[in-house]
User: Fold these one by one.
Assistant:
Number 1:
Amino acid sequence: MKKITIGILAHVDSGKTTLSESLLYLTGKIRKLGRVDHKDAYLDNYRLEKERGITIFSKQAVMEYEDMKITLLDTPGHIDFSAEMERTLSVLDYAILVVSGSEGVQGHTETLWKLLERYNVPAFIFVNKMDMPNVSSEFLLHELKEKLCDTVVGFPVHVGTLEDIAMCNEDLFEMYMEGGKISNSVISELVYNRELFPCYFGSALQLDGVDSLLEGLYQYTFEPVYSKKFGARIYKISKDKNNNRLTHMKITGGSLKVKDVISGINGAKEWAEKVNEIRIYSGEKYQAVSEAMPGDVCAVCGLNNTYPGEGLGVETERIEPNLIPVLSYKIIVENQVNIHQVYKQFKELEEEDPTLKISWNEEKKELTANVMGPIQIEVLKTMIKERFDYDVTFGSESILYKETIADTVEGVGHFEPLRHYAEVHLLMEPGVPGSGLTFSSSVTEKELSKNWQRLILTHLEEKMHRGVLTGAPITDMCITIVGGKAHLKHTEGGDFRQATYRAVRQGLKKAESVLLEPYYDFILTIPTEYVGKAMTDINQMEGCIKPPETKNDKSVLTGYAPVSTMWNYMNDVNEYSHGQGTLTLKFKGYAPCHNAEEVIEKIGYDSEADLNNPTGSVFCAHGAGFNVPWNEVDNYMHVKTDLNLNSSNVEIQKQENDLNRVSGVTSFQENYDSYAADKELEAIFENTFGPIKRKNYTETKVRTYDNKAKKYKGKYNNNLPECVLVDGYNIIFAWDDLKSIALKNIDGARDKLLDILSNYQGYKGNTVIVVFDAYNVNRHKETIYKYDNVYVVFTKAAETADMYISKTTHQMAGKYKVTVATSDGLEQLIIMGHGALRMSAMNFKEEVEAVFQKIEDEMNNFNK
């Protein structure tokens, strides 16, 4: 029997749960159709789900159709519980994306589509509510093709559909033109490879079109091939009614038996635990089994150290969701309840929901919860009451800010009370927006023992380091160990902890800090008569709006705005549009705060008064330790460095980071191939950000330790090896000869380019790296291999070539003389900001042709 796992995803109120009921009914799993509005849906069995009519937790049901066994996972549609939905994607073989026929493709629908692409999940589409008035399947299919993918094809199959299917693959089209037939196995292959997305139309409430969808799932799906070795992917942690901890997982290899001992790593802790029970759930009920086989989705009792996203056995990769909380609430409990017990119990809930972040402020004696949105707060209240039998309330919401730096500094920390000693020097550089914190070391073992270096890196990673503006967590920095010193007799591990923490804080005090706030992408659909008011509101909210699009009597506004001004705007929309407007919000990322001075003043954080995070250092003299303030520490440090940090390009870096944070890549897709355009691009860059500071490859920078010259990370000289990064598809479609090949056979064009660059590299003797987008790589895992003498990279899922090149340029610029060959406008801006060299596609072609001419001339001379 074929066994597959299918998830149902949708924008809220699209009829996702109703479709689940219909599938369960038609397969005989349930005898009576439940309804959301009747509060008797089979899978929405949690009390709050019934009351609110929404799915909050992912649910499982097992059903059979013909000789196919389906594990169905129904996921939440509301944005507050998007993380619950996203966690299930890692265990899906296929997905059904439900689209409302009356609403069309909504903002969250597009978000779900991108997540399916990121996790490389093949998808079927079911357009629901086709029984509503004024709904057109032709119009909806056109919208799906336009907004999601042009290989969305209407099903069931008929003669016209076959032609549309054939157009999804060039080789298939040639075969179809010759024979006029396409087999089910070929269609299944296209679906599995995400080259084809079958689209069914109907009404789940009326059971219309659902049987066709079910037959399509039977005809056009494959059962995955599983490993013989044990593997499992954990997607959820929950508690049953008896407070038993359940680890929900899919078996991806071998089998799992009761009493088996399995192991894993949680943080730095290794664990090994015994399986006490294995359950296969369908709705609220479950069947206890002695063994779970490959493809089974089960809940396991007896495991206490597992976490969502963890892989067991051969599944070694940890999967982290993209979504992060942006709102914070103070937790208020009854006086008779022990606050520390509350903290412990909330941490249990945090284990079940990774987007819930609970923190305790010892100074203020306050407990706070970081969440996705206000509905999640209501769920928390209910769960606390049901599970622990006491009431909690939540204070007013606050925004989760972050901090970064705009310039490069050296942070120094020293800790030397009597009989203790440690000194740490850190190079702190602005990182790529959205990159978080990265840590590394550039010192040798002669300068500082490897075990002390590892200890410093551990201390950098173990703590949430606070910024000096508001005390918010720091992010988007590259922190490198560039110096340090221990004492042969008096240094203990805790000494380096103190020195490391102080070095970070001292560096932050020296740097130009930037307060960051979260931003939403928004899609606002309202009656056209209210467009003026909406645009005025969004401008007042410091938002950015694209020109409105009009559809019939409604208009659609898209753009981005700060979470602090936009998160509660739906209440206003409901009021002035009389309930006819919809607002979809999606977390975009962090960018400089629009009202930083106001926020900093309101929070009133004093970095010098924060005794738990000191900015100064402790030195020793005359047998006693004494404190030195941060601005004098450099004068006392024992390890001397001379990093020659130049802050002249601080504004360039700061403005570039701002641009990257708030602007999408697709906003800057103009090509600049001509010399005039190149000059124009440079002029635009300089007018916006100031003069471009290019790296001087004849310049030598050194630092000294005890009067000995040492090299350091970031040294440039005229002997740096050359590296050329090539945006593969950009070059292919910019060179006419390759483009003509690509229109017929993209693989042939790719191989032709690699052959050309192989000869180019052979003559130049440099390093050539060609980067291609990952769309043609199965499962979208990053792949790197060597084609003759050229390195080839296929990027990982959801990472375009320009994103990879931007990241790599930033990392390699100090080690190589980096040149990037591309005509992508945004890439060129970022490359110049990083100080690397670059060539447009046409200029690169001229260089390659010049190399080939030299090769030919040398060959002719040799033959003579």
Number 2:
Amino acid sequence: MNRKIEQILASLKERFPEAVIAAERTMTGVKVPMIQLLLEAASLRHEMGSRWRLSETYHLRWYPADEKEVLTGAEPMLLAAKEIWPRAEVNVSRDGNTLVVEAESEEICFLTGEEAEKMKRELLTLQLKWQEEARKG
């Protein structure tokens, strides 16, 4: 899971070298332009045999340097999202002066029992982290 996020961050840094790239929620002091990658939800469900279905929802938040860039940034952000998640359903919306790209993906993984347990632990750790961040506000 962490390796996948690192690959996504590397791809974003390559595609948007002028922007600060973050993978954590930032509360104050946002430097612009900035792209924030957040894994909002993830689940792993057993299918059959060694087949598992991994579902993930990512948000890319684009904080432009000025308001005019919100509109011009939509196309490059969508193209980047489709390159990163080629089989995902991708939607874009505007939240004030922020552009939000949401990508929902599902993939079938062939995992051993040990690999599935390891991935489940990683997902549980992420969910506990999200709950703690939500509690802090």
Number 3:
Amino acid sequence: MAIFLIAIGLFFTGIDFYLVPGISYPDYVKPQGEFLGTQMKDSIQEHVTKNILGGQLQVDILPDIIGCLLIFIGVIMLVKHNKKYISCLLLAVITGVLTLALRIVPFYINSAALVVTTLAIFVLIPIFEIWMEYKVIYTTVGISDDMANWGTNRRMLFCWWLTVFARVFITCLTFSGLTAVKRWYEAALLIFTVLYLYQLIQTRKYVGVYKVYKEGFNSAVVPEYIREKMQGVSFHENRDISMDELRFTRVLYYDFNGQVQEGELIVNQKIAYQTMRAFYQLYKMEYPIEKIRLVDEYEADDEQSMADNNSSAFNYRTVEGQEELSKHALGLAIDINPRMNPYVRGDEFFPKNAAEYLERDVEKCTGVHKDKMIHKNDLAYRIFRRNGFEWGGEWSHAKDYQHFVAK
């Protein structure tokens, strides 16, 4: 609803259709004194008042004041998503006041003072109007996830900037009195305003789903290009979970060489926040993780992913060797450094290249990266437990040392 209100408000403020109700302004064309010691020439006064104000009160059938009010209400509804919207509220108020002032000042001010005031307001209106729209649109881009919604946002911004240029020309042409040429720019303004507002309305399904925990740690709806990569690979149509319930989560981590890397995970929307928080805490402690890639990079083959020591989350599959659906299939489980922390059930273990890490005693283990093995009460264990995960290494029926599952 908030996006719809803002879109209607932006249409009202962006498009002007004037009617003349027959209410004449007072006789303000004739000079009546000086303004701050300056005598205004009759020709200047007549040019300004004729081209900007006209001889009668002009009423916009799409009132900018109502437009600013609708924007104000819509923005209030979105402040919870981004505090930057607060500045939009002030700009909406200023824009509304200026548009009202331009039409009523001739009833209260005359002569040279009227010319100066009219010019000042006439210049300030497009400045504050464009500034308000800029803040509203770019803040909306920020909360609608510029990655998942990249195409829509680019089209919206492109069309909006075209309306800005059209309005600048309209302002100049209005002042110069070239009304015939101005009509072409007004037509272009109408077309591009409709186009960018249509794109703005399309962003509504993304509003509020883009979450940032810390810089480099964010989650969003799964972008289209990732959906295409997952479809038929890690994701299959099912009754258990939809793509819309998943979140594309980006994190930073330290690899085994101590270098900062960017990782990607697909998790259930229910645990997106705690996932970002857990990985942020691991990052702050410089906990080593070899790689964090989507299992789709391995054709969703869990054995290949684990063998490459890839830490991952969502993969619509069953538990290894069983028919029961894995928690990974719901995006509720995360595996960390799986080669150093294999899944063990009886005499079986996965991945198959993790034999040296079956010995969990650090003193006896012969693995090169035995310091990356997860144990009870170590750093990874404590962080994930604090963030609402259980550890598979504590299971009795099997030991899944890599596995952390949301409670």
